[in-house]
Amino acid sequence: MNFFEFTVGTVGTVRALAQRALKKAAARPFIDTDDPVRRTVSILHPPALDLVVSDVFEHGPDGRTFRLVPTGGKGDRLPPFRAGQYLSIKGTWGGACVSRPYSISSAPYEALLATGGYYEITVKRQSDGLVSPHIFSTWQKATRVSASGPHGEFYHEPLRDAGDIVAIAGGSGITPFLSMAREIIHGDMEARLVILYGVRTMDEALFEKELIRLAGVAPDRLRVCYVVSEPDGTEKCATGFIDEGLIKKEIGDISDKSFFVCGPQALYAFFNSEAQKLTIPRRRIRWEVSGPNRVIGAHPAFPKKATGREYALVVYLDRGQKTVPARAEEPILVALERAGIAADSRCRSGQCGICRAELISGEVFIDPENDARRRVDKEYGFIHSCSTYPVGDCTIRIVSPEVLTG
Q1: N or C end of the chain, less CB within 10 A?
Q2: How far apart are CA 103 and CA 87, in angstroms?
């Protein structure tokens, strides 16, 4: 058999196999979309959540809790979640397509109430932020909210974590631990929780009365220790910082305990050094996603030549291309959002990979503390745009959420 005969025969075989496959597909029975497995998956992992604000609770001038319910009312079911997970709130504000992760502060059982399930998220206003001022000025009762989730792996897993949890919280980082505390007291979470809650002053402490009430219900399962860093002498709690000495005093034996950390980035760096002094095994520490580094220019490895610079970012989309300005000390994702490009994202901390993009050319700085890319992505030049900073003119390729979801 010569080469020509071999080629013709191969093409004929492939064509015959393809025709046979088409006939089998046509004869295959219709797949029932009411299949219980498919229905369960659609409930647990919906592509999007359409919610509405049903109530608003104030926490001083800069803190608010928003109760979110399904737009369809009590007849609609909310996806279940585990205490510690978050919602990714999405919207277009000021011409920017943005998303922000907010921990769910309500308890998992409250999402499943037969009388009407709900989520609660607590937002602290950042004066220099983009999303939180917009939420404070526009969200009220009956406001429609678009979200996805619940997302995240910051929850207690009995097969992985110890039954004794030490929560290290700072500022609004108390919210996932409030969810855990509520679930523990309700009886649906088998764990014991000690919260070390660091605040500048007690006026900034969120949910103080509720945490005290919950701890009073079951002191053997929940204890809260406030730590004030800027005391005025009237405090009846610990002062200073959540350091090695305070942890030893409040916790005692740290063996067979899991540590969960949530708060501002400064807390993460500080606790990491204290954990090393205490020789806490890494497998016993869970870190909540902390968002992009707001002072990336101060990182020792950040190129000083790029400080204060702005570069051209060429973005290849599924429907053409666009060139946008990108500041060196802001993540590429922020530049995309400011330009109105709908680049999907969730955690905004370099962990989940939803904002993955291909770096075609150019020089970037990737935050090493928030680089959770797979090895193959590192080898083939893919980035997580939420934790990647342009330090030169760059070209990237992204796929819009519409193409991914159809």
Answers
A1: C
A2: 6
Q: Is the pLDDT of residue 138 over 70?
A: yes
Burial (CB < 10 A; 0-12, 13-18, 19+), residue 40, is exposed
Please tell me whether residue 54 adopts helix, strand or coil conformation: strand
- Cα separation, 372 vs 15, in Å, equals 43
Give the tokens for residue 203.
């006026």
3-class DSSP state of 113: coil
Look at residues 364, 164, 329, 144 and name the one whose alpha carbon lies nearest to residue 259: 164
Check if the beta carbon of residue 163 is closer than 8 Å to that of residue 191: yes
**Could you tell me the residue ranges of all domains in the chain?**
1-30, 43-151, 164-287, 303-405
- Domain topology for 303-405: Ubiquitin-like (UB roll) (3.10.20)
| The token pair that represents 260 in the structure block | 């969960």
pLDDT over 70 (residue 120): yes
First to last CA, the chain: 47
- Cα-Cα-Cα-Cα dihedral of 230, 232, 236, 239, to 10°? 30
What CATH superfamily classification does 43-151 receive? Translation factors (2.40.30.10)
Distance of CA 230 to the CA centre of its chain: 29
Which segments of 208-345 does DSSP mark as H helices, in order? 208-217, 244-251, 265-278, 332-338
Confidence grade of residue 95 (pLDDT, cut at 50, 70, 90): low
| Better-predicted residue by pLDDT, 210 or 14 | 210
Please state whether the predicted TM-score (pTM) of the whole model is above 0.85.
Answer: no
Domain 164-287 has CATH 3.40.50.80: yes
285-328 pLDDT, tens digit each:
998 876 677 788 888 889 999 999 999 999 998 778 899 999 99
Q: Give yes or no for residue 365 having a pLDDT over 60.
A: yes
Give the Cα separation of 122 and 103 in Å (integer): 8
